[in-house]
Amino acid sequence: MSRLNRGMPRNRLIGAVHAAAKQRGLEEDDRRALMQRLTGKDSCKAMDMAELARVLDALNGKERPAAARPSPIPSNAYGGKLRALWISGYWLGAIEDRSDEALAAFIKRQTGLDSARFVFASEDANKAIEALKDWLAREAGVSWDSYRGADGKPYQDPRARVIEAQWRRLAELDEVRIASHDALVWWCRKALKLPAQVAVQHMPDATKDEAIRTLGAWLRRAMGADDAEP
Prior knowledge:
10 helices; 2% strand
């Protein structure tokens, strides 16, 4: 831990972690993944001063991230999809522990594998993916139906479906007055500073990710969670 970080007040240390992550161009999910690897915690609120300072040192290049614990989730396409769904579940208020360790335990239960790191076959991955999608459909009302493109062909857009489910849940909690897609589009334009109103499924993926995090923090606060960071 650097001498500078050791003497920094807690609230400034948390702010410095967020600022350093932004300076390095890390999205929130990437920042949380780094914190999880370094400390076993993915929220600044859950960390003590030494853990916060360690994360800041790593972000500032004063500590080698390679010394961190490896993630229990495989670094392949299956692992990425499962992590994205798991984090979406957190932002939908259906999952409380968004850590890789909690996801790994879920994968092991669904596949019967000794370790989540062994998810390399599509058969195993699909068991966990479909179980997770069923859970989010049941607990958070996510519809995984496909959209129709301009050519009439169906295409999948899980991010857009998560956003729509978040908006419906906020309406159910009386956080928003109108649950329609038009109202959601209007909110996206205003809250995310979009140049024009476009259907949610036509927004760039990076914009959808920002919408999921912003709506998710709002939803979790409305549900009484105290661990949601915007």
